[in-house]
Specification:
Layout: H1 9-27, H2 32-67, H3 74-119, H4 129-140, H5 149-177, H6 179-208, H7 211-225, H8 230-235, H9 239-266, H10 269-292, H11 298-312, H12 322-339, E1 359-366, E2 376-383, E3 388-392, H13 399-406, E4 414-419, E5 422-423, H14 429-434, E6 436-439, H15 450-455, H16 465-474, H17 478-482, H18 504-520, E7 525-529, H19 537-550, E8 555-560, E9 571-576, E10 579-584, H20 586-592, H21 595-608, H22 623-626
Parallel strand pairs: 3-8, 3-9, 6-7, 7-8
Antiparallel strand pairs: 1-2, 1-4, 4-5, 9-10
Length: about 625
């Protein structure tokens, strides 16, 4: 990793001020009572050692008089003992206060992170490397990979004890030796602290440049220790490869980090140590001279000697705050950067066009990157209202991109999409999403209850068991769910006690249930984006037959790579190179004897033989059997 350019002193100062302000903003998230209590606790922990120094110094000063028959220093001894006991007693409460502060702040910031990811980031944002790095940095602490913003807030409060102790020690030195020695040891302590903290900050900035490598390393670790590839890893003998790859990625991430640490943290240590030795040495020299010429009393000598040691070790690493504020505030910076992204908005008319409105792609082009190629080229396409339209084509034809634009996960680069003649871009994306139900090729299998999995099609209906059961029944999966140990309340994962796994076909029907619930709750467009790509041809045909039966009269779009599965669709569109190559009914397209007919016959021959009828189709299994 090339060394990042050293920032100028003003830049470092601005960064430090920005971090302190960020920490102050985090403290505003605390309950006032907790903030006040934690502040007083840290101040007490910081000042009790100063009280102990004062008491023990008076105790030492009183010993000669006690030996010659003077009064015993009982009161001073009790004060010293009380200060010591209180220090030990309050230490656990200091840790507890830090934990409470961290949890309260993190609870609020976790909610903010989720809101930011869901409200401010669309699917295009989640494909940008910079955004993914920011998310990884912001999420790292909450995944227990690094300190959190809450721990940064707790670490900031913990610094109160350190600085209160420094101020108290400087006051003791000033009273015992005069203001000049106090200034010397204080300035030396602050110089060491600034150097140490500045080096840590630069190290944190350098570490942030390695977020991409850290994400790859974390991915390999999750892959090796998770269940996702457990079978393949063992059957294919991937275990040695995973070990080797993980070790290589770890070295690729850690070696430049270690080099940066040596350069920023270890090498400046001698210079910083010399500053501390100079300041502390000067104060100790004054102490020695005052003791030798008897210008200092035993009380002054004892108090100053103990107090000088506090500034001399002040600039060292603070385990209760340094790493917490460094990495926790780095995570906070990433989260605040994400929060500054605008919330997508759109000016909408009073209401969307009627659900029955025809959807048209008008001269639509689209590319994923400004400098990338067009995936869709001047596409003109009509999706008739209340009819089923199948979109077929070879891999790379633009089918999935079409679905992304239709679902408004992306917006056209050129052209427009209209509904009932109105431009879809004039309507808020959230309203559009409520009007569409999509079953993606890689539809999610949530480790939630069956009821919750279905209710995600319309989250407001979670408590409406009748609606959930009706949706499951329409999708043909109600009998399967009723047979589970806890019915619809069964968690659909064997990773949880009492949970159950479903087969691939049953999961497809769960996804279809979500779409049925969305339809019942007002959705006007259903889209299937190759959700059956892993099924054999007969099971896929049975799935689509059932879908077309239960969505008759609904505007629906079916994306498929097997032509024979969508022959019952009202309208079929063939995409090629991002354009509409052919369109029409199944029979009309066969009669045209074009691309559709050629590909249909080529696929059919795989199952019927070259001499079989060109319009042949393997008999579909009954839906209940094919989807098991």
């Amino acid at each position: 990793m090339p060394a990042p350019p050293a920032p100028s002193w003003p830049a470092r100062l601005r960064r430090r001020v920005r971090h302190r302000l960020a920490a102050a903003r985090l403290l505003r998230l605390l309950h006032p009572g907790l903030l006040a209590g934690a502040t007083l606790l840290h101040l007490a922990v910081g000042l009790l050692p100063i009280g102990f120094i004062a008491a023990t110094s008076h105790l030492i000063a009183a010993l000669p008089a006690a030996r010659t028959g003077g009064g015993g220093p009982t009161a001073v001894l009790l004060i010293a003992a009380a200060a010591f006991v209180l220090q030990q007693a309050l230490a656990p409460f200091q840790s507890l206060a830090g934990e409470l502060v961290a949890r309260q702040v993190d609870g609020a910031r976790i909610a903010d992170l989720m809101a930011c990811a869901l409200d401010r980031l669309d699917s295009a944002d989640l494909e940008e490397q910079d955004v993914l790095d920011l998310l990884a940095e912001a999420r790292g602490g909450f995944d227990r990979l690094s300190p959190t913003p809450g721990e940064a807030a707790a670490g900031t409060l913990a610094l109160l004890a350190r600085y209160a102790q420094l101020v108290g020690a400087a006051a003791v030195v000033a009273l015992a030796l005069g203001p000049l020695p106090a200034v010397l040891v204080t300035v030396a302590a602050l110089v060491i602290r600034a150097g140490q903290r500045g080096a840590l900050s630069r190290f944190g900035a350098a570490r942030a440049t390695l977020t991409g490598r850290r994400r790859r390393l974390a991915y390999l670790r999750r892959t090796a220790t998770g269940t996702g590839i457990a079978k393949e890893a063992r059957m294919l003998g991937l275990v040695p490869w995973l070990r080797t790859r993980h070790s290589a990625e770890a070295r690729r991430y850690l070696e430049p980090l270690w080099a940066t640490r040596r350069r920023l943290l270890f090498r400046p240590f001698l210079g910083l140590a010399s500053v501390g030795l100079a300041g502390g040495g000067a104060a100790l020299a004054l102490l020695a001279r005052g003791g030798a010429d008897h210008t200092l009393t035993l009380l002054q000598l004892s108090a100053a000697l103990q107090a000088v040691l506090i500034p001399m070790r002040f600039g060292v690493f603070f385990p209760e705050s340094d790493m917490q504020t460094l990495y926790g505030l780095t995570a906070e910076d990433a989260l605040r950067t994400l929060e500054q992204r605008p919330v997508p908005t759109a000016t909408a008319p009073a209401q969307l066009p009627p659900a029955a409105g025809t959807i048209r792609f008008e001269d639509v082009s689209f590319r994923y990157r400004p400098d990338g190629p067009d995936v869709l080229h001047h596409l003109d396409l009509e999706l008739p209202a209340g009819r089923s339209t199948a979109v077929v084509g070879l891999n790379g034809a633009g089918k999935t991109t079409l679905v992304r634009l239709l679902a408004r996960l992306r917006e056209p680069t050129a052209g427009r999409i209209t509904v009932g003649g109105a431009d879809a871009a004039d309507h808020p994306v959230a309203d559009w999403h409520r009007r569409i139900a999509v079953i993606f090729q890689d539809f999610a299998r949530y480790q939630l209850t069956a009821a919750e999995n279905i209710a995600l099609g319309s989250p407001g209906r979670l408590d409406d068991r009748a609606a959930l059961r009706a949706a499951a029944d329409r999708a043909g999966v109600l009998d399967v769910l009723d047979a589970l140990p806890d019915g619809l309340d069964t968690v659909l994962s064997s990773h949880y006690r009492g949970g159950s796994d479903l087969s691939g076909g049953q999961w497809q029907r769960i996804a279809l249930s979500r779409a049925m619930l969305a339809l019942a709750d007002g959705a006007s467009l259903l889209v299937l984006d190759e959700p059956t790509a892993q099924l054999d041809v007969r099971a896929e045909a049975a799935f689509f037959d059932r879908f077309l039966d239960i969505t008759r009269g609904v505007t629906s779009v079916i994306i498929a790579h097997r032509f024979s599965s969508v022959r019952r669709a009202d309208h079929i569109v063939v995409l090629a190179d991002g354009r509409v190559a052919e369109s029409g009914t199944h029979d009309r397209l066969l009669a045209l004897d074009g691309e559709y007919a050629r590909l249909f016959r080529a696929q059919a021959e795989r199952f019927t033989g070259a001499d079989g009828p060109s319009d042949a189709r393997t008999d579909a299994l009954p839906a209940e059997e094919a989807l098991r």
